[in-house]
Every structure is written in structure tokens, then in C-alpha cells.
Amino acid sequence: MVRSPFTGVVSMKNIEVGEFASPGQPIVQIIDTSTIKLEVTIPESLISYVKVGDTVDVSFSAVNKTVQGKIMRRGVTVAKASQTFPIEIHIPNEDGAFLPGMRARAIIPKLTIED
């Protein structure tokens, strides 16, 4: 019997039933889909509007759903070719509606007006 150290989904099998596995040989790849990590790039002209901890709306057209995600990382080095900065947004996925690799669009607000 094989057990995973966390709850996840088998994304790839490296060995079939009946085959022998060597010690240390990976037999499956398991991914945790409870939180989706969205990696996007933002133009350098807008990077001042992005702060770690901010919440942003993220829409997934494949499932016609918009949810809130949280900015967890903001790159500190610009990609020279595109003049963009990487940011990482974490999106809760308890119901498993979002799958790794799905296209998403993040809406980064430039201004928020209260009331």
C-alpha cells in the first residue's frame, strides 16, 4: 500500500500495476488542488498598485466563475524582454472547480473608493 503525505489528485502514474519499483523511484505524481496558484505578469507601469496581501477578482471563463484571490508574491525583478513583473495569486478551490492549467483573468484595481 502507498500513502500520500497530503490529500491530492494523482496527475501522473510512472509505473503500472505488476511492475517493480526501485527504492526511491517515483511511482506517481500527486498535486494539491485545494489552492490554485495563478502566476501572472503585470506591466511595470502598474506594479505600484500591487501589494502582497491584496485581494483581487479572478475569473475563469471555462467554468464561468469569478472568485477572490490573494496576492501572495510580487516579483522584484523586471523581465527585460516584456518589461513586466511576475505576481502570484492564491485562489481557494475547496470544491475542485478549478483545474491546474485553466486560463484565468485577474483584475487588479488601480483605485478603490470607499462608500
Which keywords apply here?
about 40% strand, mainly beta, 5-stranded antiparallel sheet, about 120 residues
Topology record:
Blueprint: E1 9-13, E2 28-31, E3 35-43, E4 55-60, E5 65-74, E6 84-92, E7 105-107
Antiparallel strand pairs: 1-2, 3-6, 4-5, 4-7, 5-6
How does this model look, in words?
The chain has strands at residues 9-13, 28-31, 35-43, 55-60, 65-74, 84-92, 105-107. The protein is built from no helices and seven strands.
Structural class: mainly beta
- Estimated helix fraction: under 10%
State the assembly state of the protein chains.
single chain
Strand content: 35-45%
> Strand sequence of the main sheet, in spatial order?
3-6-5-4-7
Shape: elongated
Could you tell me the radius of gyration in angstroms? 19 Å
Mean pLDDT: 89
List low-confidence stretches. none
Order of helices and strands: EEEEEEE
The biggest sheet amounts to: 5 strands, antiparallel
Record field, number of beta strands: 7
Distance linking N and C termini = 58 Å
> Helical region count?
0
